[in-house]
Design a protein that fits this description.
The protein is of the alpha/beta class. Among the domains are: about 180 residues, no CATH class; about 140 residues, Nonspecific Lipid-transfer Protein, Chain A (2-Layer Sandwich), CATH 3.30.1050. The chain contains 28 helices and 13 strands. β9 and β10 form a beta hairpin. This is Fatty acid cis/trans isomerase.
Length: about 800
Amino acid sequence: MASVSRSGTRLYYLTVRRFAFLCLLGLSGGVAAPVWSLAAEPSPKPLSGIQDVLNKRCVVCHGCYDAPCQLKLSSPDGWLRGASKQKVYESSRLEDAPMTRLGIDAKTVPAWRRKGFFSVTGNETGSVSGPSIIEQLLRLGRKTPFDLGAALPDDLNISPLRKNVCTEPSDVDSYVEEHPTGGMPFATAPLPEEDYRRLLTWAKDGSPAPGPQKELPDAVAVQMREIEAFLNAEGLRKELVARYIYEHLFLAHLHLEEDSPDRFFRLIRSRTGPGQAPDEIPSRRPFDDPGGPFHYRLVPVDGTILHKEHMVYSIGPKRLERYHALFLGDEWSLDALPPYSVEAGGNPLSTFAAIPARSRYRFLLDDALFFVRSFIRGPVCYGQVAVNVIEDRFWVSFLDPDADLSVTDPDYLKRAIPILELPVADTDASLQDRLKNFLLNGPVRYQALRRDRYARKSKEQGGPDYDDIWDGDGTNTGARLTIYRNFSSASVVSGFVGSVPETAWVIDFPQFERIYYNLVAGFDVFGNVEHQLATRLYMDSLRREGERMFLSFMPPQIREPMHDEWYRGPLVTLLDRWKESALDTRSPSGIDFRTAFPKPEFLTGLLTLEQRLWPVHDPINRCAGEACAAPDSIAGQLRPLTEKPAPFARFMPDISVLLAGSEGQEEVFTLAHDMAHANVAFIFNEDLRREPEKDSLTVVPGQFSSYPNFVFRVKAEDVPDFVQAVRAIRSQRDYLKVIEAFGLRRTDPAFWSTYDTVQAALNAQDAIQAGLLDLNRYKDPKPLDPIEQLFEYTFSLD
């Protein structure tokens, strides 16, 4: 937060980022609270130790834009700001919503009150007049029972999309009376006694914030000054480069080279320069006009680090040296800086045209995993409609800069830029004209341009082959990526994980840049329905673009059949005529395929280009013989879950965490449910395009998802029984038997201690990349209602 980096308090929010207070989920209407007999009043406890309790128990639901009632309890500023009746994620709004970014759009409690936020702590004036909302909901949650280890009541809505009841202090008594199951924590087992006592004492004391912390270490302060000096250097070229870097890193959690793994910074535009307290300019988008002179500044990340928004980018002396090499050579010049505006800034290919395309593409490739992760962990990806533009699991690779015409042929981008407008850059025309421009005139014309120019290249130089795919320069594992979409969330990891997927992408520089500006730099989480619709529809065209690039490596005679297999259904055929130009089915591939299965041959062949970077085989999901996990290992025993067909997969959660082994020595796996679709070409009615009989599971060692939907805990000797039980699932009733034997319900007495184990395993997996997991989407499996049972029975007959 820009306003809290002044001398003497620089670490104030850095330390308290591990603070938060999840338990106010009770602000959501129609909720239930855990069973627990009303205990005696907690005895006063010192504030020491409260940080850990807040971290472990509270931030998992109240730490981001999707926090109920906007009650962001991941920092003192958040809980002092309080709650609001206004929703951030509201897909039906016709007008842009007021922006309420914590620490940016208002910086004092009175300013937040003027924006409609109300107190939940009751300590704005330094004294508490009656119990605060937090205290009352803590007590309510403690005395409202439901059965431990059992399913939650049928009338309890735990969906993250539920309608919230955001009670103000004057109405809290009525809320408690009308919503007796609306206390906290929300729909989980009771907190451990000591945790509850500390939380209630903290709430009774007015939810005090910790005091100021120590100064930043000298070495850290020196690095910050060097980075700020580079970004604020004078000269047209340096200023344009700094703008380019800022627009690509404004959401990053910057980690200073060689620094401790738990300290991160944000890059902001500040009205004040180095040596003064930062004063962040609250622009809607990073390319908006700052409205006057400004300075780039680094400020500590305040609040708890949440895995779902933790995008780590390393920066320091080595990075600055790389920037000099990429951007500040003698091969380009600049006469004037481009203007700031939505129209100009919304198209980075034109805004930064003076910077060599090779430099910009190399900048993106250097941290391909970070940038693709920003597509997913940025605010755009919330809910099913936001992420159903992609398949459930697919592999991504990148066109080598030397094979990319946008890099090697200056005329290519010159012709492409006028037809590559992004939705956010086309603001003046009517909605009908805008949709026509960036959905039809732009993407379809660009597809045709790209097809024809690469066909000419293929005729002159031969078709694309393995050398045309970036190999990571022998060091970069981000050159091969696996992207998961798990219904309402998504994730990305390095390498090719799982069996060979149905689809794959090859990304080049223009597509990479446009995806970033569509989903990250140009996306406004507070925008209206038109903006959100345009973003989603344009991403549909970008997905098709990546798929078509992949198809260009396939034998020409199978390209159209492969494409048609990805887009099955009468309506999608009509849509293709509108949104796609004709495929190139004549230009040859440069690959001499040696098998009758070119897709898996090509994709697995990419892994052999740099065997030091990625395993060629997946020992659980894609292997044979000695390449597979040992049969007597837990990983080896889980392999049958990945076999196809997998009629049991459709009943499994989107993302499950499996703890297997003896207590204290458990191995952690992620079970990813890969849903099959006839196509992913439409926003709504996904159920009509589902093909559950083709679903499968991917078993991955460790964790990658921010949103565990369920946890299974299995003793080492019971792993074969677990596998057999899962493979035997043919109905919801069968699935519930597995839950009863191996599952961890929200109401399980071991819920919180098991969550601690899962979180500790993630922290140990990668200390810098770790963040607090989100429990908003943790499921509560229940029997089907009679109508659902009828559909299930009908499906089983098929």
